[in-house]
Amino acid sequence: MVEILRGDLIAQRIEGEVRDRIVQLQQQHDCHPALAVVLVGEDPASAIYVGRKKRAAARVGIRSIEHRLPADTAESDLMALIAALNADPAVHGILVQLPLPQQISSDRVLGAISPDKDVDGFHPVNVGRLSTGTGGLVPCTPLGCMILLDQVFDDLKGMKAVVIGKSNIVGKPVALLLLERECTVTVTHIHTRGLPDIARTADIIVVAAGVPGLVRGDWVKPGAVVIDVGINRVVDADGAKRVVGDACADEMDHARVITPVPGGVGPMTIACLLSNTVRAAEMALGLVDAAASD
Ligand SMILES: Nc1nc(=O)c2c([nH]1)NC[C@@H]1CN(c3ccc(C(=O)N[C@@H](CCC(=O)O)C(=O)O)cc3)C=[N+]21
Question: Which of 6, 49, 241 to mutate to test the pocket of ligand 1 (most atoms within 8 A of CB)?
Fold first, then answer.
Protein backbone atom coordinates (compact mmCIF):
# COMPACT_ATOMS: atom_id res chain seq x y z
CA MET A 1 0.00 0.00 0.00
CA VAL A 2 1.36 3.40 -1.00
CA GLU A 3 2.31 5.82 1.76
CA ILE A 4 0.79 9.30 1.46
CA LEU A 5 3.50 11.73 2.57
CA ARG A 6 1.69 14.62 4.25
CA GLY A 7 3.65 17.77 3.42
CA ASP A 8 1.23 19.83 5.46
CA LEU A 9 2.28 17.99 8.65
CA ILE A 10 6.00 18.34 7.91
CA ALA A 11 5.43 22.02 7.11
CA GLN A 12 3.95 22.45 10.60
CA ARG A 13 7.11 21.01 12.12
CA ILE A 14 9.28 23.37 10.06
CA GLU A 15 7.12 26.30 11.13
CA GLY A 16 7.80 25.33 14.75
CA GLU A 17 11.56 25.33 14.13
CA VAL A 18 11.34 28.69 12.34
CA ARG A 19 9.36 30.12 15.27
CA ASP A 20 12.11 29.03 17.69
CA ARG A 21 14.83 30.66 15.57
CA ILE A 22 12.81 33.89 15.46
CA VAL A 23 12.49 33.94 19.24
CA GLN A 24 16.30 33.64 19.42
CA LEU A 25 16.78 36.48 16.95
CA GLN A 26 14.42 38.69 18.92
CA GLN A 27 15.83 37.90 22.34
CA GLN A 28 19.52 37.85 21.49
CA HIS A 29 19.77 40.35 18.64
CA ASP A 30 16.62 42.51 18.90
CA CYS A 31 15.98 41.50 15.30
CA HIS A 32 12.42 41.16 13.97
CA PRO A 33 12.47 39.30 10.65
CA ALA A 34 10.41 41.01 7.97
CA LEU A 35 9.28 39.86 4.54
CA ALA A 36 8.13 42.27 1.82
CA VAL A 37 5.62 40.68 -0.56
CA VAL A 38 5.00 42.55 -3.80
CA LEU A 39 1.87 41.75 -5.79
CA VAL A 40 1.29 43.48 -9.13
CA GLY A 41 -2.21 43.22 -10.59
CA GLU A 42 -5.29 41.29 -9.60
CA ASP A 43 -4.61 37.65 -10.60
CA PRO A 44 -6.99 35.75 -8.25
CA ALA A 45 -4.67 32.75 -7.76
CA SER A 46 -1.77 35.08 -6.88
CA ALA A 47 -3.96 36.89 -4.36
CA ILE A 48 -4.80 33.55 -2.69
CA TYR A 49 -1.12 32.51 -2.51
CA VAL A 50 -0.06 35.89 -1.13
CA GLY A 51 -2.79 35.58 1.51
CA ARG A 52 -1.45 32.14 2.50
CA LYS A 53 2.09 33.51 2.78
CA LYS A 54 0.95 36.40 4.97
CA ARG A 55 -0.98 34.14 7.33
CA ALA A 56 1.94 31.72 7.59
CA ALA A 57 4.35 34.59 8.31
CA ALA A 58 2.06 35.82 11.08
CA ARG A 59 1.94 32.32 12.65
CA VAL A 60 5.72 32.19 13.10
CA GLY A 61 6.32 35.85 14.01
CA ILE A 62 7.59 37.21 10.71
CA ARG A 63 6.37 40.72 9.96
CA SER A 64 4.98 40.71 6.41
CA ILE A 65 4.75 43.97 4.52
CA GLU A 66 2.48 43.77 1.50
CA HIS A 67 2.85 46.08 -1.50
CA ARG A 68 -0.07 45.86 -3.90
CA LEU A 69 0.46 47.66 -7.19
CA PRO A 70 -2.06 48.13 -10.03
CA ALA A 71 -1.90 45.85 -13.08
CA ASP A 72 -0.75 48.75 -15.30
CA THR A 73 2.28 49.59 -13.09
CA ALA A 74 5.32 50.69 -15.12
CA GLU A 75 8.43 48.55 -14.77
CA SER A 76 10.37 51.61 -13.60
CA ASP A 77 7.96 52.10 -10.68
CA LEU A 78 8.38 48.48 -9.60
CA MET A 79 12.16 48.84 -9.92
CA ALA A 80 12.02 51.95 -7.69
CA LEU A 81 10.08 50.01 -5.05
CA ILE A 82 12.62 47.18 -5.15
CA ALA A 83 15.50 49.64 -4.78
CA ALA A 84 13.79 51.10 -1.69
CA LEU A 85 13.22 47.61 -0.20
CA ASN A 86 16.84 46.63 -0.94
CA ALA A 87 18.03 49.72 0.94
CA ASP A 88 15.72 49.25 3.94
CA PRO A 89 17.61 47.45 6.74
CA ALA A 90 14.32 46.50 8.42
CA VAL A 91 13.39 44.34 5.39
CA HIS A 92 15.13 40.95 5.32
CA GLY A 93 13.32 39.20 2.49
CA ILE A 94 11.74 40.39 -0.76
CA LEU A 95 9.31 38.31 -2.78
CA VAL A 96 7.81 39.55 -6.03
CA GLN A 97 4.87 37.31 -6.81
CA LEU A 98 4.96 35.76 -10.28
CA PRO A 99 3.62 35.93 -12.94
CA LEU A 100 4.05 39.68 -13.57
CA PRO A 101 1.93 41.64 -16.07
CA GLN A 102 3.32 41.46 -19.62
CA GLN A 103 4.67 45.04 -19.74
CA ILE A 104 7.17 44.11 -16.99
CA SER A 105 10.24 41.95 -17.58
CA SER A 106 10.41 39.41 -14.76
CA ASP A 107 14.11 38.76 -15.58
CA ARG A 108 15.00 42.41 -15.01
CA VAL A 109 12.88 42.60 -11.86
CA LEU A 110 14.26 39.40 -10.30
CA GLY A 111 17.78 40.55 -11.18
CA ALA A 112 17.21 43.82 -9.31
CA ILE A 113 16.44 42.17 -5.95
CA SER A 114 19.45 42.09 -3.64
CA PRO A 115 20.72 38.46 -3.70
CA ASP A 116 20.91 38.53 0.12
CA LYS A 117 17.18 39.35 0.34
CA ASP A 118 16.15 37.06 -2.50
CA VAL A 119 14.07 34.58 -0.49
CA ASP A 120 12.74 33.01 -3.72
CA GLY A 121 16.30 32.19 -4.82
CA PHE A 122 15.57 33.43 -8.34
CA HIS A 123 18.37 36.03 -8.68
CA PRO A 124 21.12 34.96 -11.14
CA VAL A 125 23.70 35.09 -8.31
CA ASN A 126 21.70 32.57 -6.27
CA VAL A 127 21.06 30.46 -9.39
CA GLY A 128 24.82 30.43 -9.96
CA ARG A 129 25.53 29.49 -6.34
CA LEU A 130 23.04 26.65 -6.59
CA SER A 131 24.58 25.39 -9.82
CA THR A 132 28.06 25.31 -8.25
CA GLY A 133 26.82 23.97 -4.90
CA THR A 134 28.12 27.03 -3.02
CA GLY A 135 25.13 27.93 -0.87
CA GLY A 136 22.96 30.96 -1.41
CA LEU A 137 19.21 31.14 -0.96
CA VAL A 138 17.57 28.09 -2.54
CA PRO A 139 14.15 28.27 -4.28
CA CYS A 140 11.35 27.32 -1.89
CA THR A 141 9.53 24.59 -3.83
CA PRO A 142 12.70 22.62 -4.72
CA LEU A 143 13.89 22.93 -1.12
CA GLY A 144 10.52 21.61 0.04
CA CYS A 145 10.81 18.64 -2.34
CA MET A 146 14.24 17.74 -0.90
CA ILE A 147 12.95 17.89 2.67
CA LEU A 148 10.12 15.56 1.67
CA LEU A 149 12.61 13.11 0.14
CA ASP A 150 14.63 13.28 3.37
CA GLN A 151 11.56 11.91 5.17
CA VAL A 152 11.78 8.78 3.00
CA PHE A 153 15.51 8.18 2.48
CA ASP A 154 18.57 8.46 4.69
CA ASP A 155 20.78 8.99 1.66
CA LEU A 156 19.94 9.77 -1.96
CA LYS A 157 23.35 8.73 -3.27
CA GLY A 158 23.18 6.66 -6.45
CA MET A 159 19.42 6.93 -6.86
CA LYS A 160 17.94 7.40 -10.30
CA ALA A 161 15.82 10.58 -10.35
CA VAL A 162 13.64 11.70 -13.23
CA VAL A 163 12.48 15.32 -13.14
CA ILE A 164 9.53 16.12 -15.40
CA GLY A 165 9.45 19.86 -16.09
CA LYS A 166 12.27 22.27 -16.87
CA SER A 167 11.12 25.55 -15.33
CA ASN A 168 13.51 27.95 -13.63
CA ILE A 169 11.42 27.85 -10.45
CA VAL A 170 11.10 24.07 -10.01
CA GLY A 171 12.48 21.68 -12.64
CA LYS A 172 15.99 23.08 -13.10
CA PRO A 173 16.73 23.89 -9.43
CA VAL A 174 15.34 20.59 -8.11
CA ALA A 175 17.50 18.75 -10.67
CA LEU A 176 20.58 20.61 -9.38
CA LEU A 177 19.74 19.78 -5.76
CA LEU A 178 19.28 16.09 -6.61
CA LEU A 179 22.57 16.09 -8.49
CA GLU A 180 24.30 17.71 -5.52
CA ARG A 181 23.05 14.76 -3.44
CA GLU A 182 24.63 12.37 -5.96
CA CYS A 183 21.49 11.18 -7.65
CA THR A 184 21.68 10.33 -11.35
CA VAL A 185 19.31 12.92 -12.76
CA THR A 186 17.38 12.97 -16.02
CA VAL A 187 15.56 16.22 -16.76
CA THR A 188 12.59 15.76 -19.07
CA HIS A 189 9.56 17.75 -20.15
CA ILE A 190 6.31 17.27 -22.01
CA HIS A 191 8.12 17.16 -25.38
CA THR A 192 10.53 14.42 -24.29
CA ARG A 193 10.19 11.43 -26.58
CA GLY A 194 9.55 8.15 -24.78
CA LEU A 195 8.79 9.92 -21.50
CA PRO A 196 6.83 6.99 -19.95
CA ASP A 197 9.77 4.62 -20.53
CA ILE A 198 12.22 7.12 -19.01
CA ALA A 199 9.92 7.69 -16.01
CA ARG A 200 9.72 3.91 -15.43
CA THR A 201 13.49 3.82 -14.81
CA ALA A 202 13.20 6.21 -11.85
CA ASP A 203 13.56 5.52 -8.14
CA ILE A 204 12.36 9.10 -7.64
CA ILE A 205 10.01 11.06 -9.91
CA VAL A 206 9.59 14.78 -9.35
CA VAL A 207 6.84 16.07 -11.59
CA ALA A 208 6.32 19.78 -12.13
CA ALA A 209 4.79 19.95 -15.60
CA GLY A 210 1.49 21.69 -14.88
CA VAL A 211 -0.49 18.97 -16.69
CA PRO A 212 -3.24 17.38 -14.58
CA GLY A 213 -2.82 13.61 -14.30
CA LEU A 214 0.19 13.48 -16.66
CA VAL A 215 1.97 10.71 -14.76
CA ARG A 216 -0.04 7.49 -15.09
CA GLY A 217 0.30 4.44 -12.89
CA ASP A 218 2.23 2.51 -15.53
CA TRP A 219 4.88 5.29 -15.71
CA VAL A 220 5.90 4.45 -12.15
CA LYS A 221 8.13 1.53 -11.21
CA PRO A 222 6.88 -0.52 -8.22
CA GLY A 223 8.42 0.96 -5.08
CA ALA A 224 9.26 4.35 -6.65
CA VAL A 225 8.70 7.66 -4.84
CA VAL A 226 6.58 10.31 -6.57
CA ILE A 227 6.86 13.97 -5.56
CA ASP A 228 3.92 15.76 -7.19
CA VAL A 229 4.52 19.50 -7.56
CA GLY A 230 1.53 20.17 -9.81
CA ILE A 231 -1.34 22.34 -8.61
CA ASN A 232 -4.09 22.27 -11.21
CA ARG A 233 -7.58 23.63 -10.78
CA VAL A 234 -10.00 21.38 -12.66
CA VAL A 235 -13.74 20.95 -12.95
CA ASP A 236 -15.06 17.41 -12.34
CA ALA A 237 -17.55 15.56 -14.53
CA ASP A 238 -20.19 16.51 -11.93
CA GLY A 239 -19.21 20.19 -12.17
CA ALA A 240 -17.34 20.34 -8.85
CA LYS A 241 -14.10 22.36 -8.73
CA ARG A 242 -11.06 20.48 -7.48
CA VAL A 243 -7.30 20.92 -7.14
CA VAL A 244 -5.32 17.99 -8.56
CA GLY A 245 -1.65 17.25 -9.14
CA ASP A 246 0.36 16.18 -12.18
CA ALA A 247 0.19 12.49 -11.17
CA CYS A 248 -2.91 10.24 -11.25
CA ALA A 249 -3.16 9.74 -7.49
CA ASP A 250 -5.58 6.81 -7.79
CA GLU A 251 -3.17 4.80 -9.97
CA MET A 252 -0.22 4.86 -7.55
CA ASP A 253 -0.96 1.88 -5.28
CA HIS A 254 2.29 0.15 -6.30
CA ALA A 255 4.44 3.21 -5.54
CA ARG A 256 6.29 3.40 -2.22
CA VAL A 257 5.36 7.01 -1.47
CA ILE A 258 3.33 9.74 -3.16
CA THR A 259 2.78 13.32 -2.05
CA PRO A 260 -0.87 14.43 -2.07
CA VAL A 261 -2.31 17.51 -3.78
CA PRO A 262 -3.39 19.55 -1.95
CA GLY A 263 -1.47 19.07 1.29
CA GLY A 264 1.87 17.95 -0.17
CA VAL A 265 4.48 20.17 -1.78
CA GLY A 266 2.38 23.40 -1.62
CA PRO A 267 2.52 23.82 2.18
CA MET A 268 6.24 22.91 2.10
CA THR A 269 6.85 25.77 -0.33
CA ILE A 270 5.40 28.21 2.16
CA ALA A 271 7.29 26.73 5.11
CA CYS A 272 10.54 27.04 3.13
CA LEU A 273 9.74 30.67 2.31
CA LEU A 274 9.51 31.34 6.06
CA SER A 275 12.74 29.46 6.68
CA ASN A 276 14.52 31.38 3.88
CA THR A 277 13.32 34.67 5.39
CA VAL A 278 14.80 33.77 8.78
CA ARG A 279 18.01 32.68 7.05
CA ALA A 280 18.17 36.06 5.25
CA ALA A 281 17.79 37.80 8.62
CA GLU A 282 20.55 35.61 10.12
CA MET A 283 22.76 36.45 7.12
CA ALA A 284 22.10 40.17 7.57
CA LEU A 285 23.27 39.85 11.20
CA GLY A 286 26.39 37.98 10.10
CA LEU A 287 25.29 34.87 12.03
CA VAL A 288 25.49 32.67 8.94
CA ASP A 289 27.44 32.99 5.72
CA ALA A 290 25.55 33.20 2.40
CA ALA A 291 27.96 30.56 1.12
CA ALA A 292 27.00 28.11 3.89
CA SER A 293 24.96 25.22 2.61
CA ASP A 294 22.35 25.56 5.35
N1 LIG B 1 7.71 34.79 -6.54
C2 LIG B 1 6.95 33.71 -6.40
N3 LIG B 1 7.29 32.75 -5.51
C4 LIG B 1 6.52 31.63 -5.35
O5 LIG B 1 6.85 30.75 -4.54
C6 LIG B 1 5.33 31.51 -6.14
C7 LIG B 1 5.03 32.54 -7.04
N8 LIG B 1 5.84 33.61 -7.16
N9 LIG B 1 3.92 32.45 -7.82
C10 LIG B 1 3.00 31.35 -7.71
C11 LIG B 1 3.64 30.08 -7.19
C12 LIG B 1 2.68 29.08 -6.61
N13 LIG B 1 3.04 28.93 -5.23
C14 LIG B 1 2.35 28.16 -4.29
C15 LIG B 1 2.60 28.20 -2.95
C16 LIG B 1 1.84 27.47 -2.05
C17 LIG B 1 0.79 26.68 -2.47
C18 LIG B 1 -0.04 25.96 -1.48
O19 LIG B 1 0.10 26.12 -0.29
N20 LIG B 1 -0.99 25.12 -1.95
C21 LIG B 1 -1.89 24.39 -1.09
C22 LIG B 1 -3.32 24.72 -1.46
C23 LIG B 1 -3.69 24.41 -2.88
C24 LIG B 1 -4.97 25.08 -3.25
O25 LIG B 1 -6.03 24.61 -2.84
O26 LIG B 1 -4.90 26.12 -3.93
C27 LIG B 1 -1.64 22.90 -1.19
O28 LIG B 1 -1.04 22.47 -2.18
O29 LIG B 1 -2.05 22.20 -0.28
C30 LIG B 1 0.53 26.62 -3.82
C31 LIG B 1 1.31 27.34 -4.72
C32 LIG B 1 4.10 29.74 -4.95
N33 LIG B 1 4.49 30.42 -6.04
Answer: 49
Please state the atom number of ligand 1 nearest to the C-alpha of residue 265: 28
> Which CATH superfamily groups domain 30-116?
Leucine Dehydrogenase, chain A, domain 1 (3.40.50.10860)
Q: What is the pLDDT of residues 119-171, one digit of tens each?
A: 999 999 999 999 999 999 999 999 999 999 999 999 999 999 999 999 999 99
CA distance 264 to 250: 15
CATH number of 140-266: 3.40.50.720
Beta strands in 75-173 (DSSP E): 93-96, 160-164
What is the Å distance from ligand 1's center to 49 Cα?
Answer: 5
> Rounded to whole angstroms, how far apart are CA atoms 2 and 249?
10
pTM of this prediction exceeds 0.90: yes
Residue 98 CB less than 6 A away from ligand 1: yes
With a 6 Å cutoff on the Cβ, whether 267 touches ligand 1 is yes
In short, whether 262's Cβ falls inside 6 Å of ligand 1 is yes
Q: Which residues of 175-185 are buried (b: 16+ CB within 10 A; e: fewer)?
A: bbbbbbbebeb
For the chain, give every residue range classified as CATH 3.40.50.10860.
30-116
Q: Cα separation of 268 and 202, whole Å?
A: 23
Render pLDDT for 70-115 as a digit per residue (tens, 0 to 9).
Answer: 999 999 999 999 999 999 999 999 999 999 999 999 999 999 999 9
Q: What ipTM does the predicted assembly reach?
A: 0.97
Q: Return the closest-CA partner of residue 114 out of 269, 272, 280.
A: 280
